[in-house]
Write a structure and sequence with these properties.
With 227 residues, this protein is an alpha/beta fold. The chain has a single domain, classed as Rossmann fold (3-Layer(aba) Sandwich). 39% of the residues lie in helices and 15% in strands. The protein has a seven-stranded mixed β-sheet with strand order 3-2-1-4-5-7-6, with helices on both faces. α2 packs antiparallel against α5. The chain is globular and about 50 Å long.
Amino acid sequence: MVDVVCVGAHPDDVEIGMGATVAGMVRSGLSVAIVDLTDGEPTPAGTRVTRLAEAEAAARVLGASERRTLDLPNRSLFDTGEARAALAEVFRELRPRVVFGPYPVDAHPDHIAASAIVQAARFWAKLTKSAMRGEPHYPARLYRYMAVHMRLVREPSFVVDVSEDLSTKLEALAMYESQFLANPANTGIIEMMEATARTWGGTIGTAAGEPFFSDEPVGIRSVDALV
């Protein structure tokens, strides 16, 4: 069992969208698991073995309690019953209270599909009279992070102050050497992620931030928690 499950279409999606928030949750004592729906291969750079090793290294940097890679197809990811059941079984086993998934609007079809799969699997995880493994479970909250291939500016539901954990996010991203350091097309990604975090931090008066989106109202226990 874990407190939080963060789901991405590919290895590095979670790190790009909310790596600093993951590190901050872990630092505060929460247990966080990362689930990649695909292994991200094929890509212009890297191999399955390389990508899996890089993903594990990044998860260790962030402090995630575990990382799983489901056997769904990269580049052909669709919201199917098979995909829903595969992720729902993870939710039923790990029983998180909170789930994070990709933002639903993107140029990358896999990211759009992943967003739909997460939402459907959250519901499927509570089904009874099912052939799925595990006992029914319904994560209380679903939030979206943004790791998109479009230049989108959207009003977030909330922004997390990640000033203390931005450096950890950047270190985790550097673990993806095949994708960001050795691939000439992506050599500026890590610097862009730092600049983006600084910009979001500026919107809430902090050094760095990461935005999140919710279809449901977001409750707080006390105004003392507000930045």
